[in-house]
TrEMBL record:
InterPro entries: 4Fe4S_Fe-S-bd, 4Fe4S_Fe_S_CS, Aldolase_TIM, BssD/PflA/YjjW, Organic_radical-activating, Organic_radical_activase, Radical_activat_CS, rSAM. Its cofactor is [4Fe-4S] cluster. This is Glycyl-radical enzyme activating protein family. It catalyses: glycyl-[protein] + reduced [flavodoxin] + S-adenosyl-L-methionine = glycin-2-yl radical-[protein] + semiquinone [flavodoxin] + 5'-deoxyadenosine + L-methionine + H(+). GO terms for molecular function: 4 iron, 4 sulfur cluster binding; [formate-C-acetyltransferase]-activating enzyme activity; metal ion binding. It comes from the Bacteria. Its EC number is 1.97.1.4. Pfam families: Fer4_12, Radical_SAM. It comes from Desulfitobacterium hafniense (strain DSM 10664 / DCB-2). Belongs to the organic radical-activating enzymes family. SUPFAM superfamilies: 4Fe-4S ferredoxins, Radical SAM enzymes. Residues 44-74, 75-103 form the 4Fe-4S ferredoxin-type domain.
Length: 299
């Protein structure tokens, strides 16, 4: 399995404390139906076509040696299986409507980008967050970049679903200052329905991290009709109380990633699902506070 990065975002404020740089790694063993970064799911490179900016000029059709593209009835048809990611179409596209998602990490370049903002991290209590996809699916990359960050005395956080090899998790513990632990649902059946996997490994790994004394913030994306019901909220609160976890970030489901599904040749199953109302989010926050969770943050 190849280690691939598909984005580096600077000046982030919602991915751990302070001002942060977030590294997004490609590939995840879960296939969440609501995922806002569908290009993060596969462990391989992908050809992205931004239909909204494409002018159907035919340059990609003429230049592609693999005959990936064809214009039919004013529409650009793409046979993505033929693409060998040579990058010619990306370089030739005058509207930058084509891109390749996923590139091999250049650690010198990554650290150069990160260190540009070292003063901001120090001033704000920020640092670097590894996200994805599932960052911890990339054991060698995580070990190397986290070690480099520790050498520079930079705070490290990892956003994880917890669906990862337990030994990898244990190995990374000394290098991670904060876990942003995404919980989807307490029910194994519902978790399987929503993500394609049950949650036993996730719950076991959460217990492992808690037992090791790690700093953990639970992250919970509220998805109407999936995990917004009282029994789902109660299950998360019960788990947190049992594990003595006192911090949770509650995020609303949104549809900002819907266009990405089209751009990457996927079908977005939840196109008709509306985000939760602000009042609903506030009610959920109040519920967790009443259950004794000490720090509840809405995003």
């Amino acid at each position: 399995m190849e280690d691939l990065i598909f984005n580096i975002q600077r000046y982030c404020l919602h991915d751990g404390p302070g001002i942060r740089t977030v590294l997004f790694l490609k590939g995840c063993h879960l296939q969440c139906r609501w995922c806002s970064n569908p290009e993060s799911q596969r462990f391989t490179r992908e050809l992205i076509h931004k239909e909204a900016t494409c002018i159907k000029c035919g340059t990609c059709v003429a230049k592609c040696p693999q005959q990936v593209f064809e214009i039919r009835e004013g529409k650009l048809d793409i046979t993505r299986q033929k693409c060998d990611f040579c990058g010619i179409c990306v370089r030739e596209c005058s509207t930058t409507s084509l891109e390749i998602s996923g590139e091999n990490p250049d650690f010198d370049k990554i650290m150069e980008i990160i260190l540009q903002d070292k003063s901001y991290y120090d001033m704000s209590g920020g640092g670097v967050t590894l996200s994805g996809g599932e960052a911890l699916a990339h054991r060698a990359f995580c070990r190397k970049i986290l070690t480099l960050l520790k050498t520079e005395n930079i705070h490290t956080a990892v956003e994880t679903s917890g669906y990862t090899d337990t030994q990898t998790l244990i190995e990374m513990l000394p290098l991670i200052d904060l876990f942003l632990f995404d919980l989807k649902h307490i029910s194994a059946e519902a978790h399987l329905r929503g993500t394609g996997k049950d949650n036993q490994l996730i719950l076991d790994n959460l217990t492992t991290v808690v037992s090791a004394g790690a700093n953990i913030i639970i992250r919970y994306t509220l998805i109407p009709g999936f995990n917004s019901q009282p029994e789902a909220l109660s299950g998360i609160a019960d788990l947190m109380k049992n594990l003595n976890l006192n911090e949770i970030d509650i995020l609303p489901y949104h549809r900002l990633g819907a266009e990405k599904y089209k751009n990457s040749g996927r079908n977005y199953e939840l196109a008709a699902l509306l985000p939760p109302e602000h009042e609903t989010m506030q009610e959920v926050k109040d519920y967790f506070i009443k259950r004794g969770i000490k720090r509840v943050t809405l995003y």
